[in-house]
Amino acid sequence: FWVVPAVEVKIEVVIPEKERSKEEMSPNGKASPLIYKVNGTARHYHLEEHPIASNPYHNPKDVVEASVCHVKDLENGQMREVDLGCGKALLIKESGEFHAVGHKCPHYGAPLVKGVLSKGRVRCPWHGACFNISTGDIEDFPGLDSLPRFQVKIEKEKVYIRASKQALQTQRRTKMMAKCISLSNYNLSSTNVLIIGAGAAGLVCAETLRQEGFSDRIVMCTMDRHLPYDRPKLSKSMDSHPEQIALRPKEFFCTYDIEVLTEMKVAAVDVKSKIAVFKDGFKMEYNKLLIATGNMPKTLSCKGKEMENVFNIRTPEDANRVVKLATSKNVVIVGASFLGMEVAAYLAERAHSVSLVELEHVPFKKFFGERVGRAVMKMFENNRVKFYMQTEVSELREQEGKLKEVVLKSGKVLRADVCVVGVGAVPATGFLKQSGINIDSKGFIVVNKMMQTNIPGVFAAGDAVTFPLALRNNKKVNVPHWQMAHMHGRIAALNMLAHGTEISTVPYLWTAMFGKSIRYAGHGEGFDDVVIQGDLDELKFVAFYTKSDEVVAVASINYDPIVSKVAEVLAAGRTIRKRDVDAVAFLSFRTGDMSWLTGKGS
């Protein structure tokens, strides 16, 4: 279906207060409407009336004010979760100033007091999202919303916080956005910005454009039947329904005039004419284009691969169907990928049996290293998952049209009522082969630091691209992480608006299995050693991945917030040397003192 916003003529834009003085004043010092040029035509729209006042809370009954501590209770660089009676806030002291923001990460609700405070921002301990402590604005991902910001005042050596009760309860804030100018005037087959793909990259691109005051037409198209949703939950929380994992409700897209065309596949792009051709023959002109089509799962090549009850997990319906069919049945999972392992963990308590087939001899060996891979494998075996390693599937056998057995090349025959395939993915870029857009030998779209392709006005983002990673001396890499897709979308949007913003974020990912979360930051491709501190058997450890003498990535279980701390150090451009992670340094982890990370290295 199409989500088409209702016609809106009034344009509402809120400029951050610190920018208002320069944005609202024309050269002659008088208030001026904002002007945005589209295709060379100046279009005017006025700022929403939003006077700066000493009291920003419109409803006094919605406001609470409370004394939360003495000014000397917090040292510089400290954070404290404080209770205002009807909700909590995060109180922060940095450089002698107090700040108060929401205390929970809007992504999955992590307690930010357990995160990392550094140079004006706090980083989530779970998944690495970063928030500005002065404004509450989100600065790194995952997640879409910012933190609410609360007023702080000092009276008689006491710290007071004044906050909206609603903000204390919701613990999230959606940044104000522009709306589209005169939708009644547009041509159905023409848009200013076309976004192919409605995952994290596409959605963040659209939202960022609106946040930056872009007021022309935005169209997103997707092959999916649903509005953008939290795709990582397909393998981590398989019985979730689409509406439960939606990133934004339908009303959001209508409110901010972001059109979504569902079940629409682009078959070709004519970059000279700036036209996208859809599979059904429909054509749409664009001025700026973002390609964020992601990956397509690989399929098996053996006999019987097309039979019923053999799944790639691609949609919520796939995940829901697998859970239903697997309950109290025999499940075979092919591939010890992140998806395969997460599905195995989710089904272990629900299925009669779970067998996992993998070509390597240890899961995650290339990503986490052999020792960490073995520790994870042991955890799975302790939860009744049976591994069949260093072998492949040679045949899928059926009985009465349904899967009955999985035959391995080793000769082993496994009973199977359901088979889930998780053997990797390939970039969904086949429709671009004749477009002139630069595609590498593996099918990835090549972009620069501003997410631009070799074609002017064409940007690409997400799992389908290779881009220069600052952390690895601008080596062109593919980083198929949920967090990175968010940042790609934001950078692409800013550069559609000619901001000249380059990507410099540190990759951050997580996986959850049997109640244990593995957190990972950096880019460890090509690591030559792993320095492990802690206890692998107890699944309480931190692993530093090094290349030559330099730490290039870190992973941990039960050692928060070490991964977020290392991510913050790497984001600051510091180098962590191998010698910095010896046993003496590890003693400081146990006391919570990680100052050595910011005090050493280059």
UniProtKB/TrEMBL annotation:
InterPro entries: FAD-oxidoreductase/Apoptosis, FAD/NAD-bd_sf, FAD/NAD-binding_dom, FAD/NAD-linked_Rdtase_dimer_sf, Reductase_C, Rieske_2Fe-2S, Rieske_2Fe-2S_sf. Pfam families: Pyr_redox_2, Reductase_C, Rieske. SUPFAM superfamilies: FAD/NAD(P)-binding domain, FAD/NAD-linked reductases, dimerisation (C-terminal) domain, ISP domain. GO terms for cellular component: mitochondrion. PROSITE patterns: RIESKE (PS51296). Residues 66-161 form the Rieske domain. Keywords: 2Fe-2S, Apoptosis, Electron transport, FAD, Flavoprotein, Iron, Iron-sulfur, Metal-binding, Mitochondrion, Oxidoreductase, Transport. The keyword Hydrolase does not apply. The keyword Transferase does not apply. GO terms for molecular function: 2 iron, 2 sulfur cluster binding; metal ion binding; oxidoreductase activity, acting on NAD(P)H. It is found in: Mitochondrion. GO terms for biological process: execution phase of apoptosis. Belongs to the FAD-dependent oxidoreductase family. Induces apoptosis through a caspase dependent pathway. Reduces mitochondrial membrane potential. PANTHER family: APOPTOSIS-INDUCING FACTOR 1 (PTHR43557), APOPTOSIS-INDUCING FACTOR 3 (PTHR43557:SF8). This is Apoptosis-inducing factor 3. It comes from Acrocephalus arundinaceus (Great reed-warbler). The lineage of its organism: Eukaryota, Metazoa, Chordata, Craniata, Vertebrata. The gene is Aifm3.
